[in-house]
From TrEMBL, chain A:
InterPro entries the UniProt entry points to: NqrDE/RnfAE, RnfE
EC annotation from Swiss-Prot or TrEMBL: 7.-.-.-
Record keywords: Cell membrane, Electron transport, Membrane, Translocase, Transmembrane, Transmembrane helix, Transport
Topology within the bilayer: Multi-pass membrane protein
Pfam families on file: Rnf-Nqr
Family membership noted in the UniProt record: Belongs to the NqrDE/RnfAE family.
Leading EC class: translocase
Function: Part of a membrane-bound complex that couples electron transfer with translocation of ions across the membrane.
GO cellular component: endomembrane system; plasma membrane
Electron transport recorded as keyword: yes
Record's subcellular location: Cell membrane; Endomembrane system
Gene: rnfE
Protein name (record): Ion-translocating oxidoreductase complex subunit E
Length: 231, 305
């Protein structure tokens, strides 16, 4: 019994890493994923900031889930999320000015990041405080991992640097298109394909064709209990 | 005569035969680029063609798909890509261009017939965005008595200051990418394709006519605009790609008009000197809509309500 419980906690945490990876499998938060991943440092900063907001908002929303009236839950969620985003924005501005300048408008835009509102609606409003915190951590880690991977590929091949340091030898010219938006979409697409491939390797049959995969292949199916209506 | 609804006449043409005709039509321009830019031009054509075929083979092999290199379309893509590169380009950049054309633009979207845009155009644009300096490092042709490999602007940039003689433009003895300079060789190839009925003249003719008219209206010399830059190469060989051009005559005319207007808009009023490749990419993306809007009405078919 104890063991099973522990397993389920671990499963909630691990969910966000691959199986329900917010960027690559749920395809949420695509805007920051494409916009800030031109450099590893920015990716890491955005990932950590979003993870902080995700954990805090999940905890508070989960704690208040019984007092928030159903009809006004979305405005209530947004207000809570906006509060934490303001906190992180001020913290970053005070202690990490270069990151604040690099992320620009995308830092305050975490308020409308679909991952955070999505997890509030799908998970935190239905589960306990500890589970919600773990879910926020897992999802945040999955998001950060994806961003850092994309930033790594795009900065290394697109600019020849990592964390601003020259990595590629002078003879190797960077492929600048990878640092531009089309290159971002390309790297994003390749990573999505890899995530599906990894999921398939783990023995889960996923039909990548959205027309045929049905609820079984949908990473959101657990949250809607297979009722559909997601389209 | 307007042949419209089915049954259609069948003949023994095949993708392979059509592609072979295109390769034959490209030969004069290959030869011309060899004469104008020297052996390195021929080496580039060989490398991109071989790399394109190799990438197509490897992609099909690793994804366990039927190997399609026999239809020669990869060879055509490779040659056209080389035609869009300056002779000074490092070989690894040319090979990277083949990878983008074949794997990213063509195979990832489902192979020949499913590509959303002309693969060679996508390859060229990705390289132009990534290596802007190298992609415009045009070698000055090896004119007898002249200085070898002197970087110079294309006539499009140069004509803003001084005019090149029209004959020099027509024969191609000026700086530029491999395949675009010799108008005579390109026209020869174009005539062969039209005579062999591989391409319909509708697209090139509307495209070139639109450019000529808009040039006149904009106060530019139409003949210089027609003969310089990648216009002839684009109009004859790149815009007429079966997969990414409209089916019907009306569609082809709309497509040619759009190409001409966009090309002129970029040439005259944008910061970039040449607009042919962007015009073709943009119009490629519109082709499904043009096809939808210009679909023939079946004879005797009921009107759509």
């Amino acid at each position: 019994m104890e063991n099973e419980k522990k397993n389920s906690k671990l499963a909630i945490l691990a969910n966000g890493l691959l199986k329900e990876n917010p960027s690559l499998r749920l395809v949420l938060g695509t805007c920051p994923t494409l916009a800030v991943t031109t450099a590893v440092f920015n990716s890491l900063g955005m990932g950590v900031a979003a993870t902080f907001v995700l954990i805090c908002s999940n905890i508070v929303i989960s704690a208040c889930r019984k007092v928030i009236p159903d009809k006004v839950r979305i405005p209530a969620f947004i207000t809570i999320i906006a509060g934490f985003v303001t906190v992180i924005q001020m913290l970053v501005q005070a202690f990490a000015q270069p990151l604040y300048d690099a992320l620009g408008v995308y830092l305050p835009l975490i308020v409308v990041n679909c991952i955070i509102l999505g997890r509030a609606e799908m998970f935190a409003s239905k589960n306990g405080v500890l589970d919600s915190a773990l879910d926020g951590l897992g999802m945040g880690l999955g998001f950060t991992l994806t961003l850092v991977l994309m930033g790594f590929v795009r900065e290394l091949l697109g600019a020849g640097t990592l964390f601003g340091f020259q990595i590629l030898p002078a003879g190797m010219e960077p492929v600048a298109v990878l640092a531009s938006p089309p290159g971002g979409f390309f790297v994003f697409g390749v990573l999505m394909a890899l995530a599906i491939l990894l999921d398939q390797k783990r023995g889960k049959k996923v039909d990548a064709d959205p027309e045929k995969m049905g609820c079984a292949g949908c990473p959101n199916s657990k949250n809607c209990n297979g009722e559909g209506e997601c389209e | 005569m307007l042949v419209k609804a089915s049954p259609h006449i069948r003949d023994n043409s095949s993708t392979q035969r059509i592609m072979l005709d295109v390769i034959i039509a490209l030969c004069p321009a290959i030869l011309a680029s060899g004469i104008i830019f020297g052996w390195r031009a021929l080496l580039l054509v060989g490398v991109t063609a071989a790399a394109s075929v190799a990438f197509e083979y490897l992609y099909c092999y690793f994804l366990k798909k039927p190997i399609t290199i026999g239809d020669l379309s990869a060879v055509v893509t490779g040659i056209l890509l080389a035609f869009n590169l300056p002779a000074t380009i490092p070989l690894w950049i040319a090979i990277l261009g083949s990878f983008v054309s074949i794997v990213i633009a063509k195979q990832l979207f489902g192979g020949l017939g499913h590509n959303f845009a002309n693969p060679a155009i996508v390859g060229r644009i990705v390289l132009a965005v990534s290596f802007a300096g190298r992609m415009t490092a045009y070698a000055y042709p090896a004119v007898p008595g002249g200085v070898d490999a002197l970087a110079s602007a294309t006539p499009l940039v140069a004509t803003r200051h001084a005019d090149l003689p029209l004959l020099q433009l027509f024969l191609g003895a000026h700086g530029g990418v491999l395949g675009e300079t010799c108008a005579a060789a390109l026209l020869l190839g174009g005539i062969y394709l039209v005579v062999r009925r591989v391409i319909s003249p509708a697209i090139p003719v509307t495209y070139l006519a639109t450019v000529a008219i808009v040039s006149l209206l904009a106060g530019q010399e139409p003949l210089v605009q027609l003969l310089s830059g990648g216009l002839l190469l684009g109009a004859i060989f790149m815009a007429t790609d079966y997969v990414t051009s409209p089916y019907t005559l009306t569609g082809k005319i709309v497509y040619g008009l759009g190409l001409g207007v966009i090309t002129c808009a970029i040439r005259f009023w944008a910061s970039s000197a040449e607009g042919v490749s962007y015009a073709i990419l943009l119009m490629n993306l519109l082709v499904p809509y043009i096809n939808d809007l210009t679909r023939q009405k079946p004879l005797g078919g009921a009107k759509k309500k």
